[in-house]
Amino acid sequence: MLRMELQQAESxxxxxxxxxxxxxxxADAMMMVVSAAPPHSHHAAHPPPSAPLAVxxxxxxxxxxxxxxxxxxxxxxxxxVVKRLLLGLGVGPTVYELDQMMAAAGPGGxxxxxxxxxxxxxxxxxxxxxVVFVGGRLLGGVEKVMACHINGTLVPLLKQAxxxxx
Length: 166
Description:
The protein is α+β, with helices and mostly antiparallel strands. The chain has a domain at 51-161: Glutaredoxin. It contains 7 helices and 6 strands; from the N terminus they run βαβαβαβααββαα. It has helices at 19-30, 53-64, 77-88, 98-105, 110-121, 142-151, 154-160, and strands at residues 3-6, 32-35, 68-72, 94-97, 131-134, 137-140. Helix 3 (77-88) links the parallel strand 3 (68-72) and strand 4 (94-97).
C-alpha cells in the first residue's frame, strides 16, 4: 500500500543561518514522498476504493521516472501557468495530460483513476490538477509551485533533482 510521509531535511544547516540553504531545507521538509504504505487518514487505513493500489503504484512509477513530472489537463489554465513557469526556468518537465489519457483509453481509462489517486495525495480542497513531482517527490499543486517560486526555493529544488544545471 502507499502512504505519504513528510521528508525531513537532511542538511547540516543550523537554525538561523539564513540564505538559500535554509529555504531549500524548509521546502524540502515540506515535500511529500509516495511510498509503499497506506495513505494516512483518520477515516481509513486502506486506499480509497476509487483509487486501487495498482493506480498508486503506477503514479509512483510515473512520478519517479523523470526529474520533473506534471500531471495536467490540457484545457486547465493553472496547468498552463505551471508548465510555462517550468519551461521559462529552463526545465523540460514530463507532462501527463490526464484528460487526453481518459480519451485515449475510453471509459474506465487510466487518466480518471490517476486523477482520483492524485486527489488523495493533495490536501483537501486543492484542485485535482496540476500536480507536480520534483525528483520523484510530491511538491504539490499550483499554489505550492508558485509559493516556492516566489520565495526562491523552486530553482534550488530543481537543481537538487537534476532538472537544472545552472
